[in-house]
Amino acid sequence: xxxxxxxxxxxxxxxxxxxxxxxxxxxxxxxxxxxxxxxxxxxxxxxxxxxxxxxxxxxxxxxxxxxxxxxxxxxxxxxxxxxxxxxxxxxxxxxxxxxxxxxxxxxxxxxxxxxxxxxxxxxxxxxxxxxxxxxxxxxxxxxxxxxxxxxxxxxxxxxxxxxxxxxxxxxxxxxxxxxxxxxxxxxxxxxxxxxxxxxxxxxxxxxxxxxxxxxxxxxxxxxxxxxxxxxxx
Length: 233
Prior knowledge:
This protein is mainly α. The protein contains 13 helices and three strands; from the N terminus they run αβααββαααααααααα. The longest helix has 22 residues.
């Protein structure tokens, strides 16, 4: 282990040993997205495994998945470095998301079978509960699943894959503070409004809400700064 190999104190031992690789992957992805694992930090599978209370093998497998997602890069004979994202990079990601996700709501609105809304509401409820519990890992996982599920009704799997990939690369360094302040729960309620608008066939309204949701992710969720969020709207 080199002097630059930091294990990131905020990481804590895993609570759910079932489906270990996927659990490790989600915990590490959340740590990167929320900034618990700092950009530019060099880490090793053994040191992260020790912090998480697991062996190096599932950590190494998870980090290879994260490398494919663009969240880390491999460093030969040393481990993995957390990818650095500039403000310009994050602005570009948000711009692409705004170009493809909100307009897609016009396709989806009124075209979701009635029997599918129970699952969508369940995911929206799960996001809200996770926000209220300050469980960022579960919130981000449920949020990603909900938006991917909605986009599947465009009948365009390439759009779903692209949007999900962009969502996973976004950094949300202010989201932990928002959760502690109770403001993340307020944002989570946007999911219920989005579902209501889709169910009534209001594509314009659903597009507006999702655009606001993405702007929050880039500004308010990324920094925790309300003024930054206002500037982006």
